[in-house]
Design goal:
about 375 residues; globular; Aspartate Aminotransferase, domain 1; three-stranded antiparallel β-sheet; 2 domains
Length: about 375
């Protein structure tokens, strides 16, 4: 049994993709081709954004999005304590002066704890010139965007949506990714929409940000050999754009199939030692990048599942504040992220699971 069967995705798009790659091989437009721009436009249109900028990977996308905001030591970036390390690395690897970084706990949906955010900002907002909040839609579940927007108006901050695990998630009838000043998507192979290598994309509805992002990903140059600022080589290559464009055509159908699997998990898993993920009323459509459980004894659970031929993965074994690269930063709050770090485990969920696969997983969980 596969935890995530990428081969099924490849078999779906293989013939169309190989034909276009073969044509590209003869044309020689391997970098910066019309295929990249075509995918960017298609992605923006799909998710109802004005602009999209393809980049080398999600981490680079986060870094570019932060660089556009011209942050300094007078500023603050607030990051969830229970997210992937890329959000933190993006801040620490910014060129020039680094803003202060603080970490915040998660709520019952494993997204930003907005009560803790408001408490902190009510006491500390005046200490900083700019405040940037990284709103990570973790596991495919959206943050509470209405409340976040209310706090944004009240405390004057900027937020970036990290949609790396939420391709296709819908919040109150609209796709996530259009409320923040920018949204960043990792297109790593295992994501809901994944390349066959590293890739990422940034969306925005601000034309000036869009133009600057295009320059920053290309050495800080909008005209060849003219360098306006310190940029990077963070471009999306043509092969990945071709693959992603074809996979995008299947994204909703693949997410629908994962929702069918999730519905069975919710209705059939019945074990008092296992807690299923909660879904908020404002989540119109969950994209289920990850289906995580909270279990009383993770080591025992994983050994039991493995003995039944069922793969499991830990996302994530440590909160960021518990890692070695955590330096002299500050925690806003961490109770939940620390408490649940050693209890969370992910079970298979992907579009190519059979009914028997799901039955075997459910039976194994219920028998633990």
């Amino acid at each position: 049994m596969h935890f995530n069967y990428l081969g099924g995705q490849w078999s779906t798009v293989r013939d169309e993709v190989l034909k276009e790659i073969d044509e590209m091989g003869y044309r020689g437009d391997y970098i910066g081709s019309p295929k990249v721009e075509s995918f960017e436009n298609k992605f923006a249109k799909y998710f109802k954004s004005e602009y999209a900028v393809g980049v080398s990977n999600g981490t680079d996308g986060l870094k570019l999005a932060l660089q556009v905001l011209d942050l300094s030591i007078l500023d603050l970036v607030i990051i969830p304590n229970n997210t992937f390390i890329a959000d933190y690395l993006a801040v620490r690897n910014l060129p020039g002066e680094k803003p202060e970084t603080r970490f915040i706990d998660h709520d019952e949906y494993f997204t930003l704890n907005l009560d803790d955010l408001e408490t902190f900002l009510s006491n500390n907002r005046e200490k900083y010139r700019k405040v940037v909040v990284m709103a990570v839609h973790l596991y495919g579940h959206p943050c509470n965007l209405d409340r976040l927007n209310e706090l944004k108006k009240k405390y004057d901050f900027i937020y970036i949506e990290d949609c790396s695990q939420s391709h296709g998630t819908i919040y109150k009838g609209r796709y996530v990714g259009n409320d923040g000043i920018m949204s960043v998507y990792s297109l790593y192979p295992g994501k809901n929409l994944g390349a066959i290598g590293d890739a990422g994309i940034i969306t925005t509805n601000d034309e000036s940000i869009y133009k600057r992002l295009k320059s920053l990903r290309n050495y800080g140059s909008s005209v060849k050999y003219h360098y306006d600022e310190l940029g990077h080589n963070h471009r999306l290559d043509t092969i990945q754009a071709i693959v992603l464009s074809h996979k995008l055509d299947h994204l909703r159908r693949w997410n629908d199939k994962k929702n069918i699997v999730a519905d069975r998990y919710y209705s059939e898993i019945n074990n008092e030692k296992v807690i299923l993920p909660q879904k908020a009323p404002y989540c119109s459509y969950h994209s289920y990048h990850i289906f995580h459980l909270v279990v009383s004894n993770r080591e025992s659970f994983m050994e039991h599942m493995n003995s039944n031929g069922i793969p499991t993965i830990i996302h994530y074994p440590y909160a960021i504040s518990q890692t070695k690269i955590y330096d002299d930063e500050y925690l806003i709050s961490s109770k939940n992220s620390i408490e649940f770090a050693d209890k969370i485990v992910s079970i298979p969920i992907h579009p190519f699971m059979t009914e028997q696969d799901v039955t075997d997983i459910v039976d194994s969980i219920n028998n633990w």
